[in-house]
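Task 17 of the worksheet. Students: predict the tertiary structure of the chain below and write it out as structure tokens. Keep your answer in the requested format; marks are given for formatting as well as content.
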Amino acid sequence: MGVLETIVLVIHIITCLILIAVVLLQSGKSAGLSGSIAGGAETFFGKNKGRTMDKKLATLTKVFAIVFLVTSITFSYLLIKEDNSQPADDGAGVESVDDNAAGAQTEAPSGDAAADTDAPDEADAPAEDQAAE
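Model answer:
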């Protein structure tokens, strides 16, 4: 993975974490009991204070959602571009396996086949020994 992919990935992960935090900090539209408590606090501390905080969080959510979307598309594009730029595997790995298999067949026989080829020589040897006597 190149430097550009790493930078986009780091920005993407940070954006994901911030987006999760901003969404969790937002109050729901129908807050129920907690909304009634917060509503009482809003009238006491100031009517628009809660709305401005929700508006800021909504704006941050939109901004980080757009950044998330852009980094997702960019990272996907970079990975696809990297996959297409790599040379294709023209079966080089398969040829080396076939070469090894062919090499194994052309090597000298081992095991029982070697014993069978030596057997007639041993049988001939005693006959030669008898002839020499």
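Marker's comment: Residues 22 and 65 are 10 Å apart (CA to CA). Residues 1-91 form one domain.
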